């Protein structure tokens, strides 16, 4: 532990008190914080991974109204679950949540400790600590991206971390030493909230930080923590947009597909044995370290009717049914945007 971290650890009781006082005054009234339960915490934590709070809010409300508990979600059909998730991206999380609901519903009661939660399918140390501390008061420290940033700054870590996982390993002992054993759930939420509202990535507001007196980076923290750059790559993807009599041709992924199980997308040109169509749009999207350049080609329906009959993973979906057909979020957006523009051009 660095010297500032060791000194901060000695001040842990005063640190907890200052943080708790600040959190009581400044916490955002988020729906998963009202009447917290294991289920609501799990749903919010999974939705919030890689997604902004403002985007998650309406999804969380709809989701918990439709499936108020683990048992309700466990009984849901996977296609329904994926359709309800559409727009949040990273569908792996939806399948994980569904699988987790089935596992919890099969138990006599949900686990109450981080060690119990981490045994369940798809639950990592972060989610296990969040759920067990917030819903059951179990003393496990949460270390997410916000908390890594706050702790690295408090401890004055000026090294370059190879990865987030490496930074988590370095700061976890400090997180555990600072955790308030009497109110671990509130303490964890306060640390995350401090990172989100005050100790922000590019513009830390040190002048209104409740724990600045213990901070080794106060006033000069924007570059902490530093991470080694990840190599980026770019990949071109050519897809067919085929519209025929108010229907669009989609390819549905198999249920055991690792990334897009059960979801439908615009088919690849290559899978239809086509080289090109009329290029109607180019959309870029970044997934982790890869930028996908998605080129959408308008293809006349006559060119693909035979393939659509032959290939069981291809299906015609009526435009009216698209929002309910478990279509990948970006693809649903592209079709909705482009279908008016191309109407009348794709008959053949
Ligand atoms: S003083 Fe500044 S850098 Fe330190 S924890 Fe507070 S906001 Fe972050």
Describe this structure in words.
With 348 residues, this protein is an alpha/beta fold. The protein folds into 2 domains: 3-227, Endonuclease III, domain 1, CATH 1.10.340; 233-342, Nucleoside Triphosphate Pyrophosphohydrolase (Alpha-Beta Complex), CATH 3.90.79.10. It is built from 14 helices and 9 strands. It has helices at 3-10, 12-26, 38-48, 53-66, 70-75, 78-85, 92-105, 114-118, 125-136, 145-154, 164-178, 184-197, 305-310, 329-342, and strands at 160-161, 226-227, 233-241, 243-244, 247-252, 264-265, 278-287, 290-298, 314-318. Strands 4, 5, 6 and 9 form a 4-stranded antiparallel sheet that branches. The chain has a 3-stranded mixed sheet with strand order 3-8-7. Strands 1-2 form a two-stranded parallel ribbon. The protein is elongated. 36% of the residues are buried. Iron/sulfur cluster (SF4) binds at residues 150, 153-154, 198-199, 204-206, 209, 211-212, 215, 217-218, 221.
User: What is the CATH C level class of the largest domain, in words?
Assistant: Mainly Alpha
What are the secondary-structure elements, in order, as H or E? Answer: HHHHHHHHHHEHHEEEEEEEHEH
Alpha-carbon Rg, integer: 24 Å
In the CATH hierarchy, what is the superfamily of the largest domain?
Hypothetical protein, domain 2
Low-confidence parts:
none
Outline, from the CA principal axes?
Answer: elongated
What CATH calls the topology of the largest domain is: Endonuclease III, domain 1
Number of domains: 2
The N- and C-terminal alpha carbons lie at a distance of 70 Å
Q: Helical segment tally? A: 14
């Amino acid at each position: 532990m660095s010297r500032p971290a060791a000194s901060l650890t000695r001040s842990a009781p005063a640190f907890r008190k200052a943080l708790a006082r600040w959190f009581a005054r400044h916490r955002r009234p988020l729906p998963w914080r009202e009447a917290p339960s294991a289920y609501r915490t799990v749903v919010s934590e999974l939705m919030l991974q890689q997604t902004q709070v403002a985007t998650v809010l309406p999804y969380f409300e709809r989701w918990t109204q439709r499936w108020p508990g683990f048992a309700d979600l466990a009984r849901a059909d996977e296609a329904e679950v994926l359709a309800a998730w559409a727009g949040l991206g990273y569908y792996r999380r939806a399948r994980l949540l569904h699988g987790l609901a089935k596992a919890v519903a099969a138990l006599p009661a949900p686990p109450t400790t981080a060690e119990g939660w981490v045994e369940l399918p798809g639950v990592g140390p972060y989610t296990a600590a969040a759920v067990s501390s917030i819903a059951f008061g179990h003393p496990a420290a949460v270390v997410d991206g916000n908390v890594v940033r706050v702790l690295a700054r408090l401890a004055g870590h000026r090294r370059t971390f190879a990865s987030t996982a490496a930074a988590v390993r370095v700061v976890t002992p400090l997180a555990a030493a600072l955790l308030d054993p009497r109110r671990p759930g509130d303490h964890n939420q306060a640390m995350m909230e401090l990172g989100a509202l005050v100790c922000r990535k590019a513009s830390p507001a040190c002048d209104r930080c409740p724990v600045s007196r213990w901070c080794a980076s106060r006033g000069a923290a924007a570059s902490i923590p530093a991470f080694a750059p990840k190599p980026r790559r770019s990949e071109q993807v050519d897809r067919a947009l085929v519209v025929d009599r108010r229907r669009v041709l989609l390819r549905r992924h198999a249920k055991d597909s690792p990334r897009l199980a059960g979801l439908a997308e615009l088919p690849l040109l290559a899978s239809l044995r086509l080289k090109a169509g009329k290029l109607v749009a180019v959309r870029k999207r970044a997934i982790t370290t890869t930028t996908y350049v998605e080129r959408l080609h308008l293809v006349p329906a006559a060119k693909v009717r035979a393939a659509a009959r032959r290939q069981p993973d291809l299906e015609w979906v009526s435009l009216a049914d698209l929002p309910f057909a478990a279509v990948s979020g970006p693809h649903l957006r592209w079709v909705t945007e482009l279908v008016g523009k191309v109407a009348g051009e794709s008959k053949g």
